[in-house]
Amino acid sequence: xxxxxxxxxxxxxxxxxxxxxxxxxxxxxxxxxxxxxxxxxxxxxxxxxxxxxxxxxxxxxxxxxxxxxxxxxxxxxxxxxxxxxxxxxxxxxxxxxxxxxxxxxxxxxxxxxxxxxxxxxxxxxxxxxxxxxxxxx
Length: 137
Fold this sequence. Notes:
By secondary structure, this protein is of the alpha+beta class.
């Protein structure tokens, strides 16, 4: 079974839709192997998104991701990376298919409700960033 990382971002947390998003994962064959609600520091958000450090939106991304609590999860299931990305929908909620998380809960391309690993390799790195192995059950 594959594992992937999902983050419910501050915009979705502030709208109180955590349960609705988690239900989407569980109703579509993904199991929650680990989950916690945290407040990212600027240093942690910067390190997590360091791949985007040279892009013009990096500062705004770090500011947004530290603007409120987030829920980080390890999702497990068959083809978990692809399954999660399909459930999330396009990064821009205006382009996301109806019924996807971003189409239903995101505000904008910046406040887009959720993050999901884009590959199995990145999923492993991202999971290790937030979770110790003993926390993943």
